[in-house]
């Protein structure tokens, strides 16, 4: 993992309404106030279940809850895994991944895209 | 229209009042209303909704950068997860304010403990959210009755007394109740006439009532002559305790007595000249903080303690930790016990609810940076209760210091009001000072509940046993080299002063309304320093 120059590793996989992606957070601010609003709002716009796991803790949190997402205390260097299950799971994952790649529509990149 | 009816009860010695009856229909009992989980959910939901609405209107008038922060707070509050976090505590019988603070405590601590500056900064947002909802909870209207009326009911909750505006007069007539209950203590401190133990009384709302706190007489439909007779009557003289009066003035004529005040309401000191006393011997925070939401509000408590310190202007200030339970069920605590005076009250309740204790500890530690505070622990039974409380203060002090917040560790003393503590005083080496609470000590020594009029005679006969135990306790405290004072009604009864001084007590704390009478009595005993 350390020799991976890109922020995004892993990638998108899907099978019958399941999709997931693993990201390395390289932005110093991680996923805080404003990005977490954007992230959870976007997650809520999908009908599928979406969950996040930080640093492979094995603890999956509801990605549609800003309280849970904030409470995960994602920071620079955190490994963030997002998984979706159900309708439009694949689309949800690719849009959420794009948020990180496109830097939450802010100037500085959170994650340098692959 | 019914005729004149005269009833005899016990008065509180605070003059008389005449006015229209307010008949308490609800059981406004001293046990308080038990917490109803569904009502608490409802209050929390409403407080959260009110907070969101307030943030939205704020957002409409702010610049986009600040609006981001507000938007974040709104999203947090709209997330049902935040209310669910509190739901678990509410389900356990906790009130809305505490459940809310308790739920967020650990969540906020998670941010505060992070090594990442940005994550730590999020704690401020969360605290802001927490306090906004707390303030909204506080805004919920409390039960009250019309100003100037005579409250008539079985008993009266202290919180109802405190929430009421007594500036237009009025009084209290209780069918049950006791002159030793906390509402009686509050009424004496505020000079509100009260008569208790008159038995069943059924009157229509707004019926004219005369209540004489001096004689304990209650007259329904009083005539002008009734009022004139009471207005002209003099106050009765209280009995002297035999055996302790003889040589009191001789024994101690060379040393003076420190005279401090007990406060239950911030208004009491606003109208009192600090020069009239030697400081504050007892601040009853369970009464000074008038709503359950205040108990959970560190900021509000901090400001209250700072106001007391500012008033005292360098004189000693003793603040007692929340003494809830017993007949003081603010926020529903201690409401369901069969024998509340023998149950989870005072420091026992605080140690079983460390969230509440830690909030108060932080507020006191912070206020301590602005003046010297002595902290008094209520209802201590065993030394480990003092040690455990001190440890909590030390932990909170360390955590505040880590956050670069100015603090000062207070002296930690204890109430001596449980016989076990009085008898074993020498084992309380961890306490910095002692304060005798004679009201509770009397009820525990005589096994006569202070709010039960049917054993009121036993309670009133406690003075000799109290004085003997006080004399022993004072001697032990002196041997330990630790200060000991006395607060409680015994100190405020001028006829008991010589006996009290004979026990070796040199520091007493009384209600501001009793200051003048006690000073006179001290001067007569040659003790006014």
Which helices and strands occur, and which strands form pairs?
The complex is a heterodimer of chains A (114) and B (529).
Chain A: E1 8-14, E2 18-24, H1 33-44, E3 49-54, E4 61-62, H2 66-71, E5 79-85, H3 89-101
Antiparallel strand pairs in A: 1-2, 2-5, 3-4, 3-5
Chain B: E1 5-8, E2 10-11, E3 16-23, H1 37-60, H2 64-78, H3 80-91, H4 96-112, H5 117-138, E4 150-153, H6 158-163, E5 171-174, H7 182-190, E6 194-196, E7 208-212, E8 217-220, H8 224-232, H9 248-252, E9 258-263, H10 266-270, E10 280-284, H11 285-288, H12 292-295, H13 298-312, E11 317-320, H14 347-352, H15 354-367, E12 373-377, H16 383-402, E13 411-416, H17 419-423, E14 434-437, H18 438-446, H19 456-460, H20 463-480, E15 484-487, H21 489-492, H22 497-502, E16 507-510, H23 515-524
Parallel strand pairs in B: 3-4, 4-5, 5-6, 9-10, 9-16, 10-11, 11-12, 12-13, 13-14, 14-15, 15-16
Antiparallel strand pairs in B: 1-8, 2-6, 3-7, 7-8
Helix pairs in contact in B: 1-2, 1-3, 1-5, 3-4, 4-5, 13-15, 15-16
Could you please describe the fold and organization of this structure?
The complex is a heterodimer of chains A (114) and B (529). Chain A has 114 residues and is α+β, with helices and mostly antiparallel strands. Chain A has a single domain, classed as HPr-like (Histidine-containing Protein, Chain: A), CATH 3.30.1340. Helix content of chain A is 27%, strand content 25%. Chain A is built from three helices and five strands; from the N terminus they run E-E-H-E-E-H-E-H. Chain A starts with 7 loop residues before the first strand and ends in a 13-residue tail after the last helix. Chain B has 529 residues and is an alpha/beta fold. Chain B has an eight-stranded mixed beta sheet with strand order 1-8-7-3-4-5-6-2. Chain B has an eight-stranded parallel beta barrel with strand order 9-10-11-12-13-14-15-16, surrounded by five helices. In chain B, helix 3 packs across helix 4 and helix 4 packs antiparallel against helix 5. The relative contact order of chain B is 0.12. At the A-B interface, helix 1 and helix 2 of A face helix 2, helix 3, helix 4 and helix 5 of B.
């Amino acid at each position: 993992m350390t020799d991976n120059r890109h922020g995004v590793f892993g990638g998108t996989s899907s099978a019958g309404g399941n999709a997931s992606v693993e990201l390395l957070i390289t932005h110093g601010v991680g996923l805080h106030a404003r990005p977490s609003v954007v992230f959870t709002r976007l997650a809520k716009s999908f009908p599928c279940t979406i969950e996040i796991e930080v640093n492979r803790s094995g603890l999956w949190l509801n990605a549609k809850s800003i309280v849970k997402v904030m409470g995960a205390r994602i920071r620079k260097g955190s490994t963030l895994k997002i998984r979706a299950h159900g309708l439009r799971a694949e689309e949800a994952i690719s849009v959420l991944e794009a948020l990180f790649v496109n830097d939450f529509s802010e100037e500085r990149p959170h994650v340098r895209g692959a | 229209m019914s005729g004149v009816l005269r009833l005899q009860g016990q008065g509180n010695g605070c003059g008389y009042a005449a006015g229209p009856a307010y008949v308490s229909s609800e059981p406004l009992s001293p046990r308080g209303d038990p917490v109803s989980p569904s009502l608490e959910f409802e209050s929390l939901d409403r407080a959260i909704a009110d907070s969101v609405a307030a943030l939205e209107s704020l957002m409409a008038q702010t610049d986009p950068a600040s609006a981001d922060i507000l938007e974040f707070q709104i999203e947090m509050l709209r997330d049902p997860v935040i209310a669910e976090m509190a739901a678990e505590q509410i389900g356990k019988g906790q009130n809305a304010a505490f459940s809310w603070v308790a739920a967020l405590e650990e969540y906020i601590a998670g941010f505060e403990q992070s090594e990442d500056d940005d994550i730590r900064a999020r704690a401020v947002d969360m605290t802001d959210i927490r306090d906004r909802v707390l303030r909204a909870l506080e805004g919920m209207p409390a039960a009250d009755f019309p100003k100037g009326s005579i409250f008539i009911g079985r008993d009266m909750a202290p919180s109802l007394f405190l929430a009421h505006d007594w500036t237009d007069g009025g009084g209290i007539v209780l069918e049950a109740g006791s002159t030793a209950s906390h509402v009686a203590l509050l009424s004496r401190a505020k000079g509100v006439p009260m008569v208790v133990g008159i038995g069943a009384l059924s009157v229509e709302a707004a019926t004219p009532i005369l209540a004489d706190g001096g004689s304990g007489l209650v007259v329904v439909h009083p005539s002008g002559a009734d009022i004139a007779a009471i207005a002209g009557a003099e106050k009765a003289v209280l009995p002297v305790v035999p055996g302790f009066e003889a040589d009191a003035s001789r024994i101690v004529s060379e040393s003076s007595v420190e005279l401090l005040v007990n406060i239950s309401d911030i208004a009491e000191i606003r109208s009192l000249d600090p020069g009239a006393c030697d400081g504050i011997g007892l601040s009853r925070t369970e009464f000074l903080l008038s709503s359950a939401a205040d108990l959970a509000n560190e900021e509000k408590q901090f400001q209250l303690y700072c106001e007391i310190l500012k008033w005292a202007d360098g004189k000693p200030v003793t603040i007692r930790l929340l003494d809830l339970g017993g007949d003081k069920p603010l926020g529903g605590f201690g409401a369901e016990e069969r024998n509340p005076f023998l149950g989870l009250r005072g420091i026992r309740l605080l140690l079983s609810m460390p969230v509440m204790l830690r909030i108060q500890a932080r507020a006191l530690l912070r206020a301590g940076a602005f003046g010297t505070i002595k902290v008094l622990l209520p209802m201590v039974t065993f030394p480990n209760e003092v040690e455990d409380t001190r440890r909590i203060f030390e932990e909170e002090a360390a955590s505040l210091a880590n956050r670069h917040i100015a603090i000062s560790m207070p002296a930690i003393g204890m109430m001596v009001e449980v016989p076990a503590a009085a008898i074993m005083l020498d084992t309380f080496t961890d306490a910095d000072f002692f304060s005798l609470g004679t009201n509770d000590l009397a009820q525990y020594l005589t096994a006569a509940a202070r709010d039960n009029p049917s054993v009121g005679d036993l309670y009133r006969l406690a003075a000799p046993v109290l004085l003997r135990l006080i004399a022993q306790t004072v001697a032990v405290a002196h041997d330990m080299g630790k200060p000991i004072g006395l607060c409680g009604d015994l100190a405020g009864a001028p006829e008991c002063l010589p006996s009290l001084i004979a026990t070796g007590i040199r520091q007493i704390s009384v209600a501001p309304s009793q200051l003048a009478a006690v000073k006179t009595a001290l001067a007569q005993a040659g003790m006014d320093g």
